[in-house]
Amino acid sequence: MEDNLILFSSVTSAMRSRDLLRKNAIKSSVVRTPVGFKTKSCGYSLFVPENFNRALDIIGSHGISVLGTAAVGRR
After folding, report:
1. Which residues pair with 69 in a beta bridge?
2. How confident is residue 2, by pLDDT bands cut at 50, 70 and 90?
3. Which H or E run contains 47?
4. From the CB of residue 40, how many other CB atoms can be counted at a distance below 10 Å?
5. CA–CA separation, 66 vs 16, rounded Å?
6. Partners of 5 in the beta sheet?
7. Are 64 and 26 in contact (CB under 8 A)?
8. Contacts of 25 (CB under 8 A, 6+ apart)
9. pLDDT higher than 70, residue 41
10. Is the predicted pLDDT of residue 34 greater than 90, yes or no?
């Protein structure tokens, strides 16, 4: 399974990233971080079902800090 979840330090970063990806025609949604990953995250993450690497590039190029990535089942 490929990574499809992006972990952030704040819900604001997750929402800014979602809006940024939407402007670039990449589907994503802010979701509750699964229990096993909450120690790294604020409790909210961004689920990106397609174009994951492109999404990471776009987020990074806008200076938004990412704590990590993970693979989870489809939502």
Report:
1. 6
2. confident
3. strand 44-47
4. 14
5. 12
6. 47, 70
7. no
8. none
9. no
10. no
